[in-house]
Amino acid sequence: MKKKPLNHNHLLDIMACSVVVLDHQLRVTYLNQSAEILLSHSLNRVQGADIYDIMWGESFCEQLEYARQQNEPQAIRAASLTLADNQQIMLDCIITPQQETTSPGKQHWLLLELHRIDRQLQIVRDKQIQQQQQAITELVRGLAHEVKNPLGGLRGAAQLLESELESNELKEYTQIIISEADRLKTLVDDLLGPGKIPDYENINIHEILEHVCNLIQIESGTQITVERDYDPSIPELKCDRGHMIQVVLNIASNAVRALNGQGTIKLRTRILRQFTIHQKRHKLVLKTDIFDNGIGVPEHLQDKLFLPMVSGHAEGSGLGLAIAQSLINQSGGMIQFESKPGATCFSILLPLDNKDTGHG
Known about the structure:
Elements lengths: L7 H6 L4 E6 L4 E4 L1 H7 L3 H4 L8 E2 L1 H13 L3 E10 L4 E13 L6 E10 L1 H47 L3 H25 L7 E4 L1 H16 L3 E6 L7 E4 H19 L3 E15 L2 E13 L27 H11 L3 E7 L2 E9 L9
Parallel strand pairs: 8-10
Antiparallel strand pairs: 1-2, 1-6, 3-4, 4-5, 5-6, 7-9, 10-11, 11-13, 12-13
Helix pairs in contact: 5-6, 7-8, 8-9
C-alpha cells in the first residue's frame, strides 16, 4: 500500500509559529494559518502584495533588505511592527533566504518565522504591576486604619470644645477642624477601597457606556466628541452595576481632563477568545476600550499609575484608577493601558466565563 505524499502546507498550518514566504521582490507568496491570524489577512487576500503594505518597521525593513541582498539569514529580536490596520505588535523574526534549484533561473525567496512576544511581555508586566499594587495597597490600608482612630478623637474633641465656646468667631475655627476631619475621613475611606460586597446582576455593557457618555457630555459640554464602535453581539455581563459605572466613569473622567476641553473620546467593545488574565486563561473575555487623543500619560507615571495617591493631574486625588482597578479585580478582570501623546487607550478586561463570580 502506497503512503500518501506529505502535505507540507498542512504541516505549516498546524505550527504555532507564523510563517510568511516572500519572493525575490518581497511579495507575499504564502502565509500559514498562524500568520493569517497574526496579520488579520487571508492568503487569498494578500497573495502577491508587497510585504511593506502589510507590515512595516524600521529595523525589520533594514534586516529584510540585507537578507535579500546578501543572501544571509538574519535574526531580529523584539522588533516593533505596524500592521496595515495600524495595530502595533512586537515580535521576534528569523529571516532565512532560500533558493529554488529545481526551476530555471534559480529563483530566490525568503522564509520569515514570526514569534509574537508582546502578549507574553504584557502578561509578565501585568503580574509585576499586580504584585506591586497588592503590596502598596496593603501598606496604605494599614496606614489608613491607623489614621482613622485619632481622626475620630480629633473630631470629637473639636465638637466638645465648640459646645463650650460662646463666641461665634471662635466656633468658626472648630467648624474648620470638624469639616477637615470629615474630608480626611472620606479620603481614608477611599484608601481602604470598596466597602460593600459586589451585587452581581446581568447588565448590558453598552447601556453602562451610554450612561457614562451622558454624564461626561453634560460635564464637559459640546467641545468633546464621543465616538462609538460597539459589537452588538456581545452578551450580557454579570457584574455589579454600580461598580461598573464607577470604573468607566473614573477612566472617562480622566480622558476628559486629558483633552483639556477639546478632542475625541472613542468607546469600543470587542470579544477576545482564549485570553489570559491574572495567569488564568479564559475562553471569552469582554474588552472595553476607552480612547482619547489628549496629552497622554506622562512616561514617569506609567509604571505606577494604578497605585494609590498617584495622579497626572494637579487637582486629582490619585485614587480614581486605583479604585477602578480594585473593583475590576473583584470580578476577576483587570485594566490595562497604552499611552503616548495624542493616543491613550484604557482597556477594561472582564472574563465572561468566571465561575467564581457567577459568570456563565
